[in-house]
């Protein structure tokens, strides 16, 4: 993991240990908590138009920022519990996505990669 992730991982470990929360931080529980936080992030955008979602008020942006942080912190904690290097996992996934979505075949389309699979493979 890159240094910022390592530092945040250590800080999360210390935060949980100081509160005796390790007992609750199983991978299953962390994954469930992550979905709750992701839903809270979605809630920030619920009922907004596309234009409104791209021009948040200062108050709305603060709420979005807090929820993004919650999601990221749970991801860091979960990754630490299962031994995943987030940075490397992201680079690896980007390579997979590049293979699934070749720019010359998917330009300007939001279709799932299965719509672009080569029928000869």
CA-to-CA gap between the ends?
Answer: 35 Å
**Backbone CA Rg:** 18 Å
Question: How would you state the average pLDDT, rounded?
Answer: 92
Characterize the main sheet.
Answer: none
Q: Got a strand count?
A: 0
How is the CATH topology named? Helix Hairpins
Q: What quaternary form is this?
A: single chain
The topology string of helices and strands comes to: HHHHHH
Q: Work out the helicity level.
A: 55-70%
Protein name: Nucleotide pyrophosphohydrolase
Region (Disordered): 97-121
Pfam families: MazG-like
Summarize it:
This is Nucleotide pyrophosphohydrolase. The protein is mainly α.
Secondary structure elements and pairings:
Elements: H1 3-18, H2 27-45, H3 50-53, H4 58-82, H5 86-100, H6 103-106
Helix pairs in contact: 1-4, 2-4
Task: Provide structural commentary.
This protein is an all-alpha fold. Helices cover 69% and strands 0% of the residues. The mean pLDDT is 92. The longest helix is centred in the middle third of the chain and has 25 residues, at 58-82. The chain has a single domain (3-104), classed as MazG-like (Helix Hairpins, Orthogonal Bundle). Helix 1 (3-18) crosses helix 4 (58-82) and helix 2 packs antiparallel against helix 4 (58-82). It holds the Pfam family MazG-like. Residues 97-121 are annotated as: Disordered.
């Amino acid at each position: 993991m890159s240094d910022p992730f390592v530092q945040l991982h250590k800080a999360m470990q210390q935060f949980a240990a100081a509160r005796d929360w390790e007992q609750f931080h199983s991978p299953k529980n962390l994954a469930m908590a992550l979905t709750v936080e992701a839903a809270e992030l979605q809630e920030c955008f619920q009922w907004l138009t596309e234009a409104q979602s791209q021009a948040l008020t200062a108050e709305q942006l603060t709420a979005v920022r807090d929820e993004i942080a919650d999601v990221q912190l749970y991801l860091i904690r979960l990754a630490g519990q299962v031994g995943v290097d987030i940075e490397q996992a992201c680079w690896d996934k980007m390579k997979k996505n590049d293979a699934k979505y070749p720019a010359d075949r998917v330009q300007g389309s939001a279709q799932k990669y299965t719509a672009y699979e080569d029928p000869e493979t």
